[in-house]
Amino acid sequence: MLITKLKDRETLEALAAGKVFVVNCHGCKEVSFPEKEAAELQKEWLEADKITGVLTTDYICNPDNMKLRLERRRAQIDEANVVLVFSCGVGVQTVAEYLEGKKVCAGCDTYPLPGYQGVTPLDVDCDQCGECYLNLTGGICPITACSKSLVNGQCGGAKNGHCEVDSNMECGWERIYRRLAQIGRLDALKCPVQIRNFATDLNVSKE
Amino acid sequence: MRITELFDRGEFVVSAEVGPPKGIHIEHLLDEAKEYLSNITAVNVTDNQSSVMRLGSLAVCKELKDRGMNPIFQITCRDRNRMALQSDILSAAMFGIDNILCLTGDHTKLGDHPTSKPVFDLDSVSLLHTVKCLEEGHDLAGNELVGEPPKFAKGAVVSPCNDSVDAQLAKMERKVMAGADYFQTQAVYEPEKFIAFMEKAKQFGKPVQLGIVIPKNAGMCRFLNANVAGIHIPDDMIKELAADKERAKAGITGVEIAARIIRACKPYCQGVHIMAMGWESKVPGLLEQAGI
Q1: Inter-chain contact B164–A177, Cβ cutoff 8 Å?
Q2: Smallest Cβ distance to A161: which of B163, B170, B173?
Q3: Residue A122 is assigned to a structural domain of this protein
Q4: Integer Cα distance of A73 and A76 in angstroms
Q5: How many CB atoms lie under 10 A from the CB of residue B224?
Q6: pLDDT in tens, A26-59
Q7: DSSP-derived pairing of the beta strands A2-6 and A108-112
Q8: pLDDT computed for residue B260 by the predictor
Q9: What is the CATH topology of the domain spanning B4-214+271-279?
Q10: A-to-B residue pairs, Cβ atoms closer than 8 angstroms
């Protein structure tokens, strides 16, 4: 699940110097988009005669779809100094790749929300590490429940059972310790030294 | 000289600590080390302590070594990946530095470069394991080293007064399994807790040095209690410091308190590690009062 927020006003004004062609993405299940704020800003720019055209559609990350739609607006795009895209990072990259040679900018910042992409915002998260540790930790993910993503036990930083980085967050490894004690699996803490593999994507062949 | 040799001989090993400056001028650090720490067995050099960017531990270790001191190279996993860590370990060995202390490290968000990328490719356990691999003549990926492999006294840290002692003991066991030869503790202010911890820790059979930070004043104590993990300074100790501000400021009360803690804990540990935090000049007096 991704959340996009408009970049701050100062940054947007600087990006939108001159004439602007706007692309708004209004649709997919994975991304939350600030439609109202974007519309308000674009109304101001329209009144100031800054905008050469506005394209609002869904799934702008679909390259074939975008190709057709952008071509129909070719004249307006050519008239603009910059194409400002209000969408998640995927949408911006799709438009930028097609309009190579044209200045294409992102109007939003994209932040992750907890929750496996494409499903629901939850309290648990999966970092897709490719070497799942859940069987060693009683079902609590050390990659996402620990600020340092440690895989060999807690660091010395926990204060009152909470993380040194975020005092609202419980120490992931204290939670793991309690869970393992609860299910009678403290022996898991005697497992061999764990070392992360940051190249697990090599295991997955591109089909 | 590896301090494990001293532990093996049954010596009570005293070490101290210096923190490099945020700059390249270490004359003051070297002068203080020479004046107050010459009789100390070994001196730790911290690695970007508290996630504050400073002059490198390795460079200062080399300078101390060149001046006849025995440095302990402190190395954390916060800033470097496994390649850079192995490289620095080999560099230390090449300089003749043979004491190392392996830590995970405070998170970058706690320091003065909070926007930097926290690395943590390895942690204290896998770092100890990595040093062990290098000692065996190969790197972490299994490639053979060229020539004689390095040899270190491998140290790690433990927090005896932490809220969850059981989790700390479990981690201590893991560190021993990964290759830890000795331990230095977080600063202790509660001898009873330390003694209870050592009762359980002695089963692992590795020497432990009691960590000491001389309390400077009541304000510092309250700050440590609120902000630093694993440290708890009891109220009556804070009152003792507040009772006479002049004596506290002169370091007299703080040294008395620290000496008391050392005397109480001495029979239960194999050494003491003093983190002077700017009060290097008080160290000789502290050791005398503590009967070391």
Answers
A1: yes
A2: B163
A3: no
A4: 5
A5: 18
A6: 877 777 788 899 999 999 999 999 999 999 998 8
A7: antiparallel
A8: 97
A9: TIM Barrel (3.20.20)
A10: 92
- Cα first-last separation, chain A: 25
Does residue A124 form part of some domain? no
Here the ipTM equals: 0.89
Token pair in block for residue B44: 């730790």
The gap between the terminal CA atoms of chain B, to the nearest Å, is 21
Q: Are residues A8 and A49 in the same domain?
A: yes
Q: Which amino acid is at B58?
A: L
Residues 160-189 of A with CB under 8 A from B: 160-161, 164-165, 173-174, 177, 186, 189
* Residue A146 within a domain: yes
> Does residue A98 belong to any structural domain of this protein?
yes
Tally the domains of chain A: 2
A168 lies in the same domain as A87: no
> A7 and A90 share a domain?
yes
pLDDT at site A121:
61
- The boundaries of the domain holding residue A86 are 2-112
pLDDT of residue A124: 77
pLDDT-based confidence at residue B256 (cuts at 50, 70, 90): very high
Chain B positions touching A190 (Cβ under 8 A) are 173-174, 177
In one letter, which amino acid is A103?
K
Contact partners, residue B255, CB within 8 Å, separation at least 6: B214, B282, B285, B286, B289
CB proximity B141 to A under 8 Å: no
Task: Answer yes or no: do A106 and A175 share one domain.
Answer: no
Q: For chain B, what are the domain ranges? A: 4-214+271-279
Chain B residue with the nearest C-alpha to that of A189: B170
pLDDT tens per residue across span A46-100:
999 999 999 999 888 888 889 999 999 999 999 999 999 998 888 888 888 888 7
Q: What is the pTM of this model?
A: 0.86
| Structure confidence at residue A207 (pLDDT) | 45
